[in-house]
Amino acid sequence: MKILLSLLLVLCFFCSCTEYKKEKQSSEKGGDPGKVVRKRQGSADTIAYGTFSNPAEEVEPVTVEKDTIIDAGYSFEESIAGTKASQSIIDQLELFEVFYLSVDGKIHQGQILSNRKIAEDIREIFRFMRESGFVVEKVVPVVRYGWNDSLSMDDNNSYSFCYRDITYSKHATGMAIDINPRFNPIRWKTENRPNQPQGAVLDTTINGTLYPGHPVVEEFRKFGFRWGHSFTKFYDDHHFEKR
Ligand SMILES: [Zn+2]
Asked: Residue 86 gets which letter from DSSP?
């Protein structure tokens, strides 16, 4: 009986060893797909930099990795601090995170404060821009610039809500968004006035710059946005708005 028990014990030990070896081999071959996928999401190296392709239909959500650079991390209260907008406008706003490929070739996380009517559109358009390798330098609520649009434009910052004269600008209700203003400056059509931001020059060979027929322009159009390129007095190439 003792011999039989000992034999059984040896057999059990042998079996568990074999299972352990199998597990080890599978993990050495990269058998943990979760890890591989997470690494791919966090790495900007895998994004076709500067080329445009239609992103795959099914794209997994991007998650914050330790190498994701955080450009903005405001609470809602912080993001509206000091605005002169009325409570009825503030009640229409939503603050949300977006991920983008920045000029350093790395994935950054920023925040958009916009009207909630266009929040889902903007999230989708940022997914498109990221997956097609379109560069967005930074996305920070304009509160960081003291609600000063010129300072924000100077810094090539992309943003949506900024309270101004409501009859003048869709930004006042968060129904407009500017993308890379320094790469896509305001250029006057007939008047001889300087580009805005000052000193900015349009160079469509730079990734992050828009032009008629550009895939990002077409994507905005698909979601029903009007492009500032068609404004009467100037080309406002960084500006998209929705009614
Ligand atoms: Zn604008």
From this structure: -
The rounded Å distance from CA 180 to ligand 1 centre is 10
Q: Is residue 191 part of a domain?
A: yes
Name, in order, each residue with C-beta under 8 angstroms of 222's C-beta and a sequence gap of 6 or more.
Answer: none
**Residue 13: both structure tokens together:** 């030990």
How many angstroms is it from 62 CA to the middle of ligand 1? 27
Distance 170 CA to ligand 1 centre (A): 8
pTM for this entry = 0.74
Distance 179 CA to ligand 1 centre (A): 8
Q: Which domain holds residue 170?
A: 59-241
* Structural domain total, the chain: 1
Spacing, Cα 176 to ligand 1 middle (Å): 6
- % the chain with pLDDT above 90: 69
- CA–centroid distance, 118 to ligand 1, in Å, is 15
Q: Residue 59: in which H helix or E strand, if any? A: none
pLDDT tens for residues 170-190?
999 999 999 999 999 999 999
